[in-house]
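DATA SHEET
Item: assembly model
Revision: 1
Owner: S.N.
Input lines:
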Amino acid sequence: MEVKPKSACDSCAHFNAAGLKKLGVDTSSFDHVIALAGNPNTGKSTVFNALTGLRQHTGNWPGKTVTRAEGGFEYNNEKYKLVDLPGTYSLLSTSEDEEVARNFILFGKPTVTVIVVDASRLERNLNLVLQILEITDRAVLCLNLMDEAKRNDIEINTRTLARDLGIPVVPASARYNEGIPELIQTISEVANGTIVCKPHRIKNIPKNIEKAVEDLSVEILKEYPDMPNSRWIAFRLLEGDQHIINLLQTGEFEEYIS
Amino acid sequence: MKQKNIDNIIALSNDLRWQIGDEFHDNLAEGIYADAAEIVKVSVHKPNGDNRLRLDAKIDKIITSKTWGFPLMFLILAVVLWLTIVGANYPSSMLAELLLNTIHPALKGYASALGLPWWLDGFLIDGVYMAVAWVIAVMLPPMAIFFPLFTLLEDFGYLPRVAFNLDHLFKLSGAHGKQALTMSMGFGCNAAGVVATRIIDSPRERLIAIITNNFSLCNGRWPTQILIATIFIGATVPASFAGIASLGAVIGVAVLGICFMFLTSWALSKTVLKGEVSTFNLELPPYRPPRFWKTIYTSIIDRTLIVLWRAIVFAAPAGAVIWLISNIHVGDLSIAAWMIDSFDGFAFLFGLNGVILVAYIVAIPANEIVIPTILMLTVLVTGISGGAGAGVMFELDSANATGEILRAGGWTLLTAVNLMLFSLLHNPCSTTIYTIYKETKSVKWTVVASILPVILGFVVTFLVAQVWRLFA
């Protein structure tokens, strides 16, 4: 990747090109794990390539990332391992690719989850974003394909969007390497706790369900006081997710959250 | 204590699930969508409405229409092939001139200056070097044109539209609609196509896609098709139509491959791989103007050079084997001549000849070297001059000269047609076979995927040969 300092930008933290080192597939030792999630065909692989310097095959068709690709980069002397998850529209059903993505975000303990969305189809993409924000409280929204949004006269106010979602929002056009330095800087700030997220929690739920989720959440927190996503576990239990129930029963759950 | 708490949690969740009723899943989904709508209302503005969607819809209306969908697909295939055939000619002959006519004699010169024994010099330079040089000269130019063109189409967003157009046919044949995507990848390289079948969730439909991927004419086979069509099919019509006729023949073989793919899929899904066709969603992505130069660059670096490297790795030992079997004599004939003689009668049944069968056995590692092997062996058995010596692969300057050698070897139009059919219908190359094993983890299905096309190939060429001889 070329990070070209433009005129007055040299002194800005976002253009800290000297601190960036692409590690390709070398993920031997690392300080942070970064998950890359998003709908199919939003350019996750392009973002992945831009960050790692790898050349994962990219193409304009949904579902072309069939394996969980891993790569790495080093930024300000800290090593980041990047995991490119298969694209999914939701995390609520039981198909195999959704399970891979869901389990990794829930149990893979990524330090930061980067959610790549298509800026010109934001509303549809938010479905997944809001679900991920129930699971993790360290996330960055990468508003990708901004070039397409601009071409189609779609204006997005990233400040109000960041406020409503409670996580940092970075506009980008990964195909043209735009926004990638900013994305790296933001990832590192969230990973190191400089930026603290207050993720949006799903609001428009009928009262009786909200109450059930709360009751269940209280019980879960009694047993696992440090659980950051008791609400999501409650959702899954109400859904009857056999995988989670099994983990609870066998006691394996403990290992995952500790 | 702990276990009790956990049991409590599960019991409570069961009670609550009962209380809130069936609508939980839908209510949750609706809640999420309502939140999303609220957020978008604040932060997203579209002053001009959704223009792009209208333009995309217009393009889709034509590309996926019942009337224009198929003709456009064939037109695009024809244009891509035509550009590949015509464009590859010049760089191919330049590379051949450089590697075969300049570097090869130079190497021979050094070898004799160093006083290398004839067998070492022959084995290394005439065997290994020539095979590698041939593969580079024949494969690099068409791949360097075909892969970027294919990648441009892929980046533009055309592949999912192909899947959309063909979905009905796949459904009829009991296969998964996404097989259209893996089939398209197979036109580049079958091993890549087999890996791409991971996008198909159902194991049954995935197996069908893996077994039938070999019917997509891959890059190692395009040059064979093109060369034979140019020499024999093009010669049957007046010179001004020769180009069109040979292009038509090549497209015909490719389309025939697609037909076999559908037929085999249908047969498999009606017999050993019975089951329901699964439904799926495939989003038609927005059309995106491809980044032209970047696409060209990455597809040459990633796809072309990787596939070329693989071909070289396999061609080098094959070159050595060819040199050895033509230079080691048993009695007064070389091993190659013995093999050709013993296969000749059997091959006649299928309208082929012993040379072709031996070439296919030698070329199992890589389809790319079939034609050079055939030429070399033909010269060997006919004893005509023109080649560079026993067991030396070579290419002649023009398709005409190649044609003369083949005709001298007893080739007819039938031999040419059946060679094209057999090149379409035979076992996958060794890389693809290995990939199939890695993906299926099953010896049984790997064997099926390897043997099935050969059987089909023998059946088809046999029938063509019998019917041809009946009428000709």
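QC remark: DSSP finds 19 helices and three strands in chain B.
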